[in-house]
């Protein structure tokens, strides 16, 4: 549990007693709090803000969000958060591990603000990120306050519990949603997310996998050549193949066996593609649209879409493997929004959690200002994904779609309506779309039978989704 030099040196120079606590890199700070049996307000997190003057570090409890209205008014500055890789890059340049952000402003020579709720109870300890990715530093509250003596202390954050109560008490109207969004997000974000001009770049491994999809006479050895260059991907492929979901009873002790005898070339490519591009994005694990829920829904939808595609008339010329990929990627717009606008996305998650009876698309429009299918289709186009995938991402909520490749978006729509029966859908109801069902030639009985087949593999699908959302170890 060696701390980065900049962190260890600073702590030792200050002379306050502290201890190190193991915290696996796969755990969020909130998960770490639960594991340690401490209140989430005892674990500090940071937000880096910037304006034309420079950087400011804000230190607050991990379960609190900033009140930008109070913050900017008190400082008389128009601050906004650093997004995406900017924060990670700053700390990595100072020797910290990717995604690890120690709340030590003096060590990094940054002016700071600290929320007073962190030190409300001096009988408890404070825990914070040690900078090496798998360690928390623990010290007494009084010492932590002294450690941040140069910071400006005040009250400019609100607990998620209080925010949830506030949202729950208010009538669900566009005015109330807009008011809350403006309060808890920086002013520049209110100009609209549609101003996004730089979408994440597709990883090189994903590009090679996508290129293989278009290659004639593709062999398992072509995939193995790519996978062997990344041990974490190789381990994932073998793990997928060993799942009882595929019904293989023999040993899976090589990539060749996993791909040729169990998964199949198309299925392997789809899973690899989803895994590779999914790891491009950093979004919260928890929440109604967090990473865990996202992948679980995507895997179930993809499996159900594939089942539905198998019963279609041959005249429709729908490829079940391509349909599976459409189901896997149809909600990728959420990953873009969460990656590029984490503050907005965090609030979006909170709204959804306490307004489960409100259609997701309604909350999405008012809190985010744009819907995931639009951002997702931009991403798929910028990455030169198959036209069928772009169509599925763009139109999967449209009941009356007659666009080219509508068969694929209709399959995703039907699958999501079916998943509503088991509480796993962002669709507002479970009513099967009449036009899509008629166009595809699917009866209600056939659709429900497909859902039953997917439900019979729940544990296997859950295991598969877990492999996709957990960080790979390479």
Layout of strands and helices, then pairs:
Elements: H1 5-14, E1 19-22, H2 29-36, E2 43-50, E3 55-61, E4 64-66, H3 68-75, E5 80-81, H4 85-93, E6 112-115, E7 125-129, E8 135-140, H5 141-147, E9 152-154, E10 157-159, H6 160-169, H7 174-184, H8 204-213, H9 220-227, H10 231-241, H11 255-263, H12 265-278, H13 291-310, H14 320-329, H15 332-340, H16 342-354, H17 360-367, H18 372-382, H19 387-395, H20 406-419, H21 434-440, H22 444-455, H23 458-469
Parallel strand pairs: 2-7, 3-6, 6-9
Antiparallel strand pairs: 1-8, 2-3, 2-5, 4-10, 7-8
Key descriptive features of the protein:
51% helix; Hypothetical protein af1432; alpha/beta; eight-stranded mixed beta sheet; 474 residues; two-stranded antiparallel sheet; globular; 9% strand; 10 strands; YbaK protein
Fraction of residues in H or I helices: 40-55%
**What is the radius of gyration?**
24 Å
The CATH class of the largest domain is: Mainly Alpha
Outline: globular
Structural class: alpha/beta
- The CATH topology of the largest domain corresponds to Hypothetical protein af1432
Tally of distinct domains: 2
Give the tally of β-strands.
Answer: 10
Largest sheet: 8 strands, mixed
């Amino acid at each position: 549990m060696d701390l980065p030099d900049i962190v260890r040196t600073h702590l030792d120079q200050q002379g306050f007693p502290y201890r190190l606590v193991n915290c696996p890199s796969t755990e969020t700070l909130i998960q770490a709090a639960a594991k340690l049996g401490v209140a989430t307000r005892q674990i500090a997190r940071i937000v880096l803000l910037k304006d034309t003057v420079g950087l400011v570090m804000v230190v607050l409890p991990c379960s609190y969000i900033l009140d930008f209205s109070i913050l900017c008014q008190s400082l008389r500055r128009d601050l906004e958060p650093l997004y995406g890789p900017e924060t990670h890059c700053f700390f990595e340049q100072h020797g910290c591990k990717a995604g690890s952000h120690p709340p030590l402003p003096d060590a990094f020579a940054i002016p700071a603000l600290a929320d007073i709720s962190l030190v409300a109870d001096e009988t408890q300890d404070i825990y914070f990120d040690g900078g090496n990715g798998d360690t928390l530093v623990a010290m007494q509250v009084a010492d932590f306050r002294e450690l941040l003596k140069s910071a400006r202390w005040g009250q400019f954050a609100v607990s998620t519990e209080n925010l949830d109560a506030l949202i729950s008490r208010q009538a669900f109207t566009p005015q109330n949603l807009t008011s809350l969004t403006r309060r808890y997000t920086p002013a520049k974000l209110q100009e609209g997310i549609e101003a996004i001009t730089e979408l994440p770049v597709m990883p090189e491994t994903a590009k090679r996998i996508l290129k293989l999809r278009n290659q004639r006479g593709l062999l398992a050895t072509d995939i193995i050549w790519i996978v062997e260059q990344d041990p974490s991907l190789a381990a994932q492929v073998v793990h997928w193949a060993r799942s009882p979901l595929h019904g293989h009873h023999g040993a899976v002790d090589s990539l060749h066996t996993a791909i040729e005898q169990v998964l199949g070339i198309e299925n392997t490519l789809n899973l690899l593609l989803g895994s590779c591009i999914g790891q491009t994005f950093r979004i919260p694990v928890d929440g109604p649209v967090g990473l865990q829920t996202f992948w679980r829904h995507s895997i179930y939808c993809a499996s159900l879409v594939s089942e539905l595609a198998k019963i279609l008339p041959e005249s429709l010329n729908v490829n079940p493997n391509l349909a599976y990929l459409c189901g896997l990627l149809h909600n990728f717009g959420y990953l873009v929004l969460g990656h590029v606008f984490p503050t907005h996305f965090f609030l979006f998650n909170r709204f959804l959690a306490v307004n489960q009876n409100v259609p997701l698309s309604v909350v999405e429009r008012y809190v985010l200002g744009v819907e995931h299918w639009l951002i997702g289709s931009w991403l798929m186009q910028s990455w030169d994904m198959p036209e069928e995938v772009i169509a599925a991402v763009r139109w999967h909520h449209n009941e009356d779609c007659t666009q080219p490749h509508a068969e694929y978006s209709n399959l995703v729509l039907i699958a999501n309506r079916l998943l509503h029966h088991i509480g796993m859908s962002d669709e507002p109801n479970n009513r099967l779309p009449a036009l899509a069902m008629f166009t595809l030639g699917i009866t209600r009985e056939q659709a429900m039978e497909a859902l039953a087949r997917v439900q019979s593999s729940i544990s296997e699908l859950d295991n598969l989704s877990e492999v996709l959302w957990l960080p790979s170890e390479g």
